[in-house]
Specification:
- By secondary structure, the chain is an alpha+beta fold.
- The chain has three domains: 182 residues, RNA polymerase II/Efflux pump adaptor protein, barrel-sandwich hybrid domain (OB fold (Dihydrolipoamide Acetyltransferase, E2P)); 60 residues, Dihydrolipoamide Transferase (Irregular); 204 residues, Chloramphenicol Acetyltransferase, CATH 3.30.559.
- Helix content is 27%, strand content 29%.
- The protein is built from twelve helices and 28 strands.
- Strand 19 and strand 20 form a beta hairpin.
- The longest helix has 18 residues.
């Protein structure tokens, strides 16, 4: 009996994904719920488990292929008998013609709303021997990079989508021939190509192609990077961490700086000194969405400032007890989240959205918290934040933040937000005008806390001040409502007792 492995539901608005890695190859035995492959959508990585126990048959969507929701990824022959053909083929490789053993490398599922990707890098060339699950190429979708592993061992016979090509979901990237015979030659060129052997020999799963590319560009070896992926697999983020750690070393030992300082003479012609780099699909999507937000909404920003004295004093008084009891640090975000939830009740239009000619008022607060990650800006959503305690909010923010940095957020965790908080202050921003996150009608921008002289009861005193910015959609939020909202946030933060009294 044959069971089909299909792309799972990826999220509310995600229609496709890219097959990043196959952990199994045709002929491998698989257990129920054992991970078969990994898909990458615009923002998250999705693992696909085996629905049954048996032997992996045909891989329909090879690494790098773009696939839609419910698209066929592979087939599994249930029971142990299905493994026999693989063993038979291994015992008589000469009798198996290359054409009969050819396996298509397909674009993996990309996500519910992603229909195409761009081939950014091929790690193999035509004629190269590849091992199963070895990274062949890397695709870029609107928001993420997707790695495509080899669905089977053999020889890369054909590349159908060269670098720079835009491919659609379920499109064909290349062809691997001689899947059975290709395993033997892999050991032969070990002396001629020692650099490629350690990566495959030390791990069951090859390093991420994007990581291999980043290491090559940075001049790093796998031994210099600590892998945090499955089975110690090195991910792109691991390379970035290694590079960040190495940046500090020249500062501590300036004597080594001259070794890397000399460069070739700079040409006088400006064009020769320019570097043209194609925008990633993620950056293209960010650019398009930001411009769409400006074109669609009537964005206006109102500003205020808040004296953080009381919040800081309250936090300093209780932070140790809070962390001891709840196991999480007491930060400023819980205060701002609580203050915004409080203000949204009084000014509900800031928590609403436009749907055609209707205004949809939300009687709940799903708070989006913008977070910067190595892959770009993501906005995980804290659902029903208005019903949460300070401890619950802090735990949710910490957990979502970690998952965001690790690239483990699901699409569901980043959808459905009704209002967003963006904290540019962590990067040192003193004042900015945040852009709306459609279809939301409001976003609060936090900024750097800075000591400034303020007049308090006729006297000049130094106070820790923060500028606040509320960008809102003027189509449904009037100036009075926007100003009132920001004033309520200010009042709640300057006197946190108001939150307890619901004032």
């Amino acid at each position: 009996m044959t069971t089909e492995v299909r792309v799972p539901t990826l999220g509310e608005s995600v229609t496709e994904a890219t097959v990043a890695t196959w952990f199994k190859k045709p002929g491998d035995a698989v257990a129920v719920d054992e991970m078969l492959c990994e898909l990458e959508t615009d923002k998250v990585t999705v693992e696909v488990p085996s629905p049954v126990a048996g032997t992996l048959g045909e891989i329909v969507a090879a690494e790098g292929e773009t696939v839609g929701v419910a698209a066929l990824l592979a087939t599994i022959a249930e029971g142990a008998g299905a493994a026999a053909p693989a063993a038979a083929a291994a015992s008589a490789p000469a009798a198996a013609p290359a054409a009969a053993d050819s396996v298509d490398v397909m674009v993996p599922t990309l996500g519910e709303s992603v229909t195409e990707a761009t081939v950014s890098t091929w790690f193999k060339q035509v004629g190269d021997t590849v091992a199963q699950d070895e990274m062949l190429c890397e695709l870029e979708t609107d928001k993420v990079s997707v790695e495509v592993p080899a669905p089977a061992a053999g020889v890369l016979a054909e590349i159908l989508a060269p670098e720079g090509t835009t491919v659609e979901a379920n499109g064909k990237l290349g062809v691997i021939s001689g899947s059975a015979a290709g395993v033997v030659p892999a050991a032969a060129p070990s002396a001629a190509a020692p650099a490629a052997a350690p990566a495959a020999a030390d791990k069951d799963v090859a390093n991420a192609p994007s990581a291999e590319k980043a290491m090559a560009e940075a001049g790093l070896t796998a031994a210099q990077v600590t892998g945090t992926g499955r089975d110690g697999r090195i991910m792109k983020e691991d390379v970035q961490k290694a590079l960040s750690a190495s940046v500090a070393k020249p500062a501590a030992a300036p004597a080594t700086a001259p070794a890397v300082a000399p460069r070739a003479p700079v040409p006088a012609d400006d064009a020769a000194r320019e570097e043209r780099v194609k925008m990633t699909r993620l950056r293209q999507t960010i650019a398009r969405r930001l411009k769409d937000a400006q074109n669609a909404a009537a964005i206006l920003t109102t500003y205020n400032e808040v004296d953080m004295t009381e919040v800081m004093a309250l936090r300093n008084t209780y932070k140790d007890q809070f962390e001891k009891k709840h196991g999480v640090r007491l930060g400023f975000m819980s205060f701002f989240t609580k203050a915004c939830c409080h203000a949204l009740k009084e000014v509900p239009e800031v928590n609403a959205e436009i749907d055609g000619t209707d205004i949809v008022y939300k009687n709940f607060v799903h708070m989006g918290v913008a977070a910067g990650t190595p892959q770009g800006l993501v906005v995980p959503v804290i659902r029903d934040a208005d019903r949460m305690s300070f401890a619950e909010i802090e735990k949710a923010i910490a957990e979502k933040g970690k998952r965001a940095r690790d690239g483990k957020l699901s699409m569901a965790e980043m959808q459905g937000g009704t209002f967003t908080i963006s904290n540019g202050g962590v990067y040192g921003s003193l004042m900015s005008s945040p852009i709306l996150n459609p279809p939301q009608s409001g976003i609060l921008g936090m900024h750097k806390i800075q000591d400034r002289p303020m007049v308090i009861n006729g006297e000049i005193k130094i106070r820790p001040m923060m500028y606040l910015a509320l960008s809102y959609d003027h189509r449904i939020v009037d100036g009075k409502g926007a100003v009132t909202f920001l004033v309520r946030v200010k009042e709640a933060l300057e006197d946190p007792r108001r939150l307890l009294m619901d004032l």
